Amino acid sequence: MGDVSDLLATATARLAGASDSPRLDAEILLGHVLGRSRTWLFTWGDRIPRAEEAGAFQALVARRAAGEPVAYLTGAREFWSLPLAVSPATLIPRPDTETLVAAALERTGRDAIRALDLGTGTGAIALALASERPHWHLVAVDREPAAVALAIRNRDNLELTRVEILQSDWFAAVSGRFDLIVSNPPYIDSADPHLQQGDVRHEPASALVAEDGGLADLAHIIVTAVEYLVPGGLLMVEHGADQGEAVRRLFTEQGYQAVESRRDLAALERVTFGTAPAADK
Question: Model pTM?
Answer without folding.
Answer: 0.86
